[in-house]
């Protein structure tokens, strides 16, 4: 009887512990499995927790099922850093999120400067406060980014779902491809505005561009050899030969400059980068003009040959008639 009583107490203790464990698991705000992607979350460690296990972040209530423990962060997309475990909530599932490159608190914006024209799904536009329309995440997405600057005639639209439309490439970009930052415009005016910064193309695109640049460099010696042949041999120093040499010269110069942009030799927006861009444009246009001149010369030559052939045919026919 004494032994059975002891066993009964032991079983009762184990049962109580099991029940407590189940209750703790049910009420715990930390799920074993991450409920969403890291980039859709915010750190809720210091936020107010409600009795049902949910958290309130910037007036948005995140249910307990949307909160989990993360032991890492991303400095940039693809660069994972291990950190102390902390709670994060899937706030972007509840309200549209907008990435801020350098942190919203670091921006020198007043209320009017922090407003943007937002395009709504019904086609209407309205000036709204960014901090009220979106959840602001302090996240720079990529290492290499470029600003859609007004001085470069970049046009863009931001809709209510935080999707950016870029006019130059006619493409819609989700928040995974851009972040916003402050920009002083006009320059030295002391007035700031919000401008998007877009990720530079993926590494796969960069590799393809660099391969094209290498092929361009490899083609230059053959172009120079062809130019030398047409200039050295007297029989080839005719009008069409000189036009071909000028065309190849323009292409050679453009091909020698273009790969420097693909390999990032020039810093973006630097004087060297702008000079390289203008030079490439000039010599490519020159190559097209020389090509047009070659086409005209070829047309004139063919026309003359055709005309001489007709004249010869007429004269031959007339001579044949005279003999008859």
From TrEMBL:
<dbReference type="InterPro" id="IPR023311">
    <property type="entry name" value="Methusela_ecto_dom_2"/>
</dbReference>
<keyword id="KW-0807">Transducer</keyword>
<protein>
    <submittedName>
        <fullName>Probable G-protein coupled receptor Mth-like 10</fullName>
    </submittedName>
</protein>
<keyword id="KW-0732">Signal</keyword>
<dbReference type="GO" id="GO:0008528">
    <property type="term" value="F:G protein-coupled peptide receptor activity"/>
</dbReference>
<keyword id="KW-0297">G-protein coupled receptor</keyword>
<feature type="signal peptide">
    <location>
        <begin position="1"/>
        <end position="32"/>
    </location>
</feature>
<feature type="transmembrane region" description="Helical">
    <location>
        <begin position="245"/>
        <end position="269"/>
    </location>
</feature>
<keyword id="KW-0675">Receptor</keyword>
<dbReference type="InterPro" id="IPR036272">
    <property type="entry name" value="Methuselah_N_sf"/>
</dbReference>
<keyword id="KW-0812">Transmembrane</keyword>
<dbReference type="InterPro" id="IPR044860">
    <property type="entry name" value="Methusela_ecto_dom_1"/>
</dbReference>
<feature type="transmembrane region" description="Helical">
    <location>
        <begin position="275"/>
        <end position="293"/>
    </location>
</feature>
<feature type="transmembrane region" description="Helical">
    <location>
        <begin position="214"/>
        <end position="233"/>
    </location>
</feature>
<keyword id="KW-1015">Disulfide bond</keyword>
<feature type="domain" description="Methuselah N-terminal">
    <location>
        <begin position="36"/>
        <end position="199"/>
    </location>
</feature>
<keyword id="KW-1133">Transmembrane helix</keyword>
<dbReference type="Pfam" id="PF06652">
    <property type="entry name" value="Methuselah_N"/>
</dbReference>
<keyword id="KW-0325">Glycoprotein</keyword>
<comment type="similarity">
    <text>Belongs to the G-protein coupled receptor 2 family. Mth subfamily.</text>
</comment>
<dbReference type="InterPro" id="IPR051384">
    <property type="entry name" value="Mth_GPCR"/>
</dbReference>
<keyword id="KW-0472">Membrane</keyword>
<dbReference type="InterPro" id="IPR010596">
    <property type="entry name" value="Methuselah_N_dom"/>
</dbReference>
<keyword id="KW-1003">Cell membrane</keyword>
<dbReference type="GO" id="GO:0005886">
    <property type="term" value="C:plasma membrane"/>
</dbReference>
């Amino acid at each position: 009887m004494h032994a059975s009583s002891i066993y009964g107490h032991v079983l009762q203790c184990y049962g109580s512990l099991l029940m407590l464990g189940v209750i703790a698991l049910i009420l715990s705000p930390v799920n074993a499995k991450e409920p969403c992607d890291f980039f859709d979350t915010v750190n809720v460690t210091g936020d107010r927790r409600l009795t049902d296990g949910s958290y309130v972040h910037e007036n948005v209530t995140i249910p307990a099922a949307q909160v989990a423990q993360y032991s890492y962060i991303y400095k940039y997309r693809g660069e994972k850093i291990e950190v102390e475990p902390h709670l994060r909530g899937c706030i972007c599932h509840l309200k549209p999120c907008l990435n801020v490159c350098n942190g919203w608190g670091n921006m020198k914006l007043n209320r009017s400067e922090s407003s943007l024209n937002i395009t709504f799904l019904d086609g209407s536009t309205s000036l709204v406060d960014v901090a009220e329309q979106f959840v602001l995440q302090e996240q720079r997405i990529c290492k290499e980014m470029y600003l859609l600057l007004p001085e470069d005639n970049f046009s863009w639209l931001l809709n209510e779902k935080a999707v950016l439309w870029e006019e130059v490439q006619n493409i819609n970009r989700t928040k995974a491809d851009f972040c916003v930052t402050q920009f002083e415009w006009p320059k030295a005016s002391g007035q700031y505005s919000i401008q998007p910064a877009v990720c530079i193309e993926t590494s796969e695109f960069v590799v393809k561009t660099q391969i094209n640049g290498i092929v361009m460099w490899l083609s230059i010696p053959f172009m120079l050899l062809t130019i030398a042949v047409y200039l050295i041999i007297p029989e080839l120093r005719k009008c069409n030969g000189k036009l071909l040499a000028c065309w190849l010269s323009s292409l050679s110069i453009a091909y020698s400059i273009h790969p420097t942009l693909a390999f990032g030799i020039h810093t973006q927006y630097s004087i060297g980068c702008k000079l390289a861009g203008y030079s490439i444009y000039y010599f490519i246009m020159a190559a097209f003009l020389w090509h047009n001149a070659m086409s005209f010369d070829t047309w004139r030559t063919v026309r003359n040959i055709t005309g001489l052939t007709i004249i010869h045919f007429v004269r031959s026919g007339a001579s044949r008639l005279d003999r008859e």
